[in-house]
Amino acid sequence: MHGGKVEQTGFVETIPFDFDKGLPLIQVEIQGNEYTFLLDTGAPNVISQELADEISYEKGVSIDIKDSQGEKKKQKSVMIDNIRIGDIDFANTGAIIIDYGDVFEMKCMGFDGIIGANLMSKLTWEIDYKNSTVSFSDIKHHFDVPADAEVIPFVPKAIQRTPVIQILVNEAVFDKVTFDTGANGAINLRKDKADQVVKELAGFDLHGNLSAGIYGSGAHSVEKYGVVDSLKIGSLELEAQVVSFESSGSMTLGNKFLKYYRVIIDWNKDEIYLIKEEGYDKKEYKSFGFFPKKVEDKLMVMGIVNESFAGQQGVELDMQIMEINGVDYRNVTDSLGCAFITSKPFEELDEIMVTFLIEEKEVELNLKKADLIKYKQ
User: Fold this and answer.
1) The organism sits in which domain of life (predicted)?
2) Which of 11, 71, 68 is nearest to 40 (CA)?
């Protein structure tokens, strides 16, 4: 997977990316056709089964691939003769074929494949979230790193070359955290890595099953959201921040954190630089207390904070949502379900009217957004 080469030398290339869905999506060219790919440091190169059916490639061996939910399967590897990004050619690049068409959340993102760490690691990359551009170069020290930039050392994961970092929470060490531009969360860690630290945090429990990987959704679990006194990521130090702790799956630093910085990833030095734009600062967690998800042709409650107003009014896991603010969700088509995931139509509102199916009766509730950290206290 770490083979292949860059054809050009002495270049700096800049291309736009689309961040409307909370993930960096870029355009690439393969065998004369243009495709949409996710720029993902947390994964190897991937092509969808549909794309694999369109192009020619050299077959490779089968490789064990684990998704973000911890599910592992064998996947076919292939060699693609050329992937062009902007005006730069990446020759004889390894990729994995994955059929993620059955995973609704993945299908809604609308990408044909992934530009992963095994390709990215051949160059230095700058991701400018503020201007929605990504630049890459083979010229050492090309990108301007200000003196006050935060520095995060990383260890490249074998073969795949994904950056793995360390995060300190209240002095507890969380190793093997994936620096993940393909994750749409912020700071997601594992409860079992520091049980005592997590138990002592002020916060709330989210019950349910909201996340999905390339093989599908994870199992029902309890995710703890808490305010940590101190957070250290490389040289970056923050105080009183909300961090989520899951019972399973990968630990990641994702786009909801990274988008507040200009990010430079230097695989020559094994260092990441964060240049502050707004800077990450999350001291509260405002929510309606329930979290919907499309299941078959229904919109279901797949996450609930029991102590929230919604929970106290009888809203439970696996309960059907009939309407939100007059929008009918009794029969959720793929297009309606994707619009709910990608557009998040009610995210900016502070108050909504929701009709739930409770004990076979439609019950309308007026829900107000609240800071669940303080609400629990």
Assistant:
1) Bacteria
2) 68
